[in-house]
């Protein structure tokens, strides 16, 4: 039987993808130089390259050598990626970035090829497929060495490929680069006609590098500065000009094969944005904190107690879930939209207050932000006794995590409020904690998931971290110990026990929870064990250093959408918290 050759359009395991992003959109690049996923002009737009989920379109730069191995790395503190191929006769690199500053309507994809050792021969293929592959390329023409054309409603322009030819609706180019030489390719994609000349590669690269240098702090006071900068860069790259941060860049990547647990995360979750803002605030008054406060403020003031769990990056309603009719990533399905738009998630109000309190610590709240904080307090006052879908977006229940998170938020913001107002908010927090203790305190002394569910849940680490009750309260100590014993395996943490199966057979380890455990143990003074948890979860990343939501411990594979912003936020915050003596960390947040 002859071997099956995997063509560039076939998906790879997630650990082999890199992401480049500019805040308005991203591109996923595989080990064969293939752009497997890119939505234009915005995160939640239809994809123009979608081979990741069985759609059409590709922009591939691939060595012509019969034998090569792949690697690569990010430029420190950026999402500028360099693919690196060692061939039978040399070394080839391709530097990749989405140009910055970003423009909302136009994506500029920069690719700089370099022959490091010996001349390089490469094949370049461009086949835009707007509408998840529904539309091919048309109106292709080359003038003054620049190709222009259309794909659906998108306009495209490609520089650096003047010798390309058209074959079966795609542009193909065989390219040779001399030893030590470089060659630039610049692809522009826009939902509007181009009104200026082609982008100059050298200037675009210089501006992009300068933008990243200005955007990402050094973070030298963390225990892992390089990874902290990388996580900050991911959060920066996933946050747009309007302040909204998408939860992930992709859709339909399965958390568990063939179990229909795959979702569209190309939207801004209020909770996730608050996690990111709090993580950044732990490191200092950096611009991403202001972005989070700005977006969350706008949504609270617009929707009040009717705050949705998630929004589009422009603040609109997340569309209902619909099937694209594509094959999907292996083990998953290709669906756009998300039913989260129909849920009530109480804990989001508590998280907004925690975000505002973190910003207030750095004196980053103005009068409008305070109005938003008061709106969140009023929403909690009105709705804290209602059942909600909870952090894991399940059935409605009186989740202990949701109520305790609201209590933590009230306590945190009360510190920064006028005395009389703060006293009232603290009193409400006391009432919520007392109510939760009446119906969700397990006989063993730990918190349980809800009045009717006595299982332990890793989500309960968060309100302990944030100060719903004191760090050394017996309930806090018992809860952390129970979560570690019941849900911890080999330095990784699972959300909750779903059934009688071993934890690893039900789902992947949840990396957000693993970093939370590291912080919780550090907060209680267990420095060595906290570092163990941190390092185990820090290592559960792709070859490119990116995190997904879950990690399959047995198969050592990434699971879920990619990259997952709140995991990078948790890694960033843990890196800072663990660098601070525990005695100073006992009064979280």
Question: What does this protein look like?
Answer:
The protein is α+β, with helices and mostly antiparallel strands and 589 residues long. Helix content is 32%, strand content 21%. Helix 5 packs antiparallel against helix 6. The chain is globular. The N and C termini lie far apart (61 Å). The relative contact order is 0.10.
Count of helices?
Answer: 14
* pLDDT averaged over residues: 95
Structural class: alpha+beta
Coarse shape: globular
Q: pLDDT below 50 for ≥5 consecutive residues: which ranges?
A: 1-8, 585-589
Question: How much strand content do the residues show?
Answer: 15-25%
Strand order of the largest sheet: 6-7-8-9-16-13-12-11
Gyration radius, in Å: 24 Å
Distance between the termini: 61 Å
Brief summary:
The chain is about 30% helix and about 20% strand. With about 600 residues, it is an alpha+beta fold.
């Amino acid at each position: 039987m002859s071997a099956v050759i995997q063509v560039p359009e076939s998906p790879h395991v997630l650990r082999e993808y890199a992401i480049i992003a500019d805040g308005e959109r991203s591109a996923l690049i595989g080990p064969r130089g293939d752009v497997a996923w890119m939505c234009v002009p915005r995160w939640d737009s239809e994809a123009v390259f979608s081979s990741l989920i069985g759609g059409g379109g590709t922009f591939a730069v691939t060595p012509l050598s019969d034998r090569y191995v792949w690697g690569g790395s990010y430029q420190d503190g950026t999402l500028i990626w360099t693919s690196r191929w060692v061939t039978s006769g040399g070394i080839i690199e391709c530097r990749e970035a989405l140009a910055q500053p970003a423009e909302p309507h136009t994506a500029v994809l920069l690719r700089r090829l370099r022959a490091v050792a010996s001349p390089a021969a490469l094949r370049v293929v461009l086949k835009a497929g707007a509408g998840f592959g529904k539309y091919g390329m048309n109106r292709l023409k080359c003038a003054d060495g620049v190709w222009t054309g259309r794909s659906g409603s998108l306009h495209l322009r490609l520089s650096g490929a003047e010798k390309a030819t058209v074959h079966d609706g795609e542009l193909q180019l065989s390219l040779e680069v001399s030893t030590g030489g470089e060659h630039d390719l610049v692809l522009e994609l826009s939902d509007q006609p181009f009104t200026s000349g082609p982008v100059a590669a050298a200037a675009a690269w210089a501006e992009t590098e300068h933008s990243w240098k200005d955007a990402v702090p050094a973070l030298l006071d963390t225990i892992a500065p390089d990874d902290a900068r990388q996580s900050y860069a991911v959060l920066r790259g996933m946050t747009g000009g309007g302040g909204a941060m998408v939860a992930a860049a992709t859709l339909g990547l399965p958390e568990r094969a063939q179990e229909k647990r795959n979702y569209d995360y190309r939207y801004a979750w209020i909770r996730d944005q608050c996690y990111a803002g709090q993580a950044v605030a732990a490191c200092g008054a950096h611009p991403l904190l202001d972005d989070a406060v700005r977006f969350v403020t706008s949504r609270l003031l617009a929707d009040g107690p009717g705050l949705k769990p998630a929004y589009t990056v422009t603040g609109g309603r997340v569309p209902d879930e619909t099937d694209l009719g594509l094959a999907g990533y292996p083990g998953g399905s290709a669906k756009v939209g998300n039913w989260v738009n129909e849920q009530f998630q109480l804990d989001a109000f508590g998280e907004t207050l925690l975000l505002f309190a973190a910003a207030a610590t750095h004196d980053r709240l103005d009068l409008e932000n305070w109005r938003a904080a008061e709106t969140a307090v009023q929403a909690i006052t009105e709705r804290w006794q209602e059942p909600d879908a909870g952090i894991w977006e399940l059935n409605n229940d009186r989740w202990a995590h949701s109520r305790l998170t609201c209590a933590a938020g009230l306590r945190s913001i009360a510190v920064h409020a006028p005395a009389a107002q703060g006293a009232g908010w603290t009193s409400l927090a006391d009432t919520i904690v007392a109510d939760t203790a009446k119906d969700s305190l397990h006989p063993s002394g730990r918190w349980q998931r809800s009045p009717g569910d006595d299982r332990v849940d890793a989500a309960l680490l968060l309100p302990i971290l944030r100060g719903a009750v004191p760090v050394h309260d017996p309930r806090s100590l018992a809860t952390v110990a129970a979560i570690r014993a019941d849900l911890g395996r080999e330095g990784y943490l699972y959300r909750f026990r779903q059934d009688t199966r071993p934890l690893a057979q039900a789902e992947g380890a949840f990396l957000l929870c693993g970093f939370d455990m590291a912080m919780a143990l550090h907060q209680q003074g267990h420095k060595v064990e906290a570092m163990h948890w941190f390092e185990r979860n820090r290592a559960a990343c792709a070859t490119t250093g990116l995190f997904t939501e879950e990690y399959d411990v047995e198969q050592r594979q990434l699971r879920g959408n990619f990259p997952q912003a709140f995991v990078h936020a948790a890694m960033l915050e843990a890196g800072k918290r663990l660098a601070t003596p525990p005695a100073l960390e006992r009064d979280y947040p």
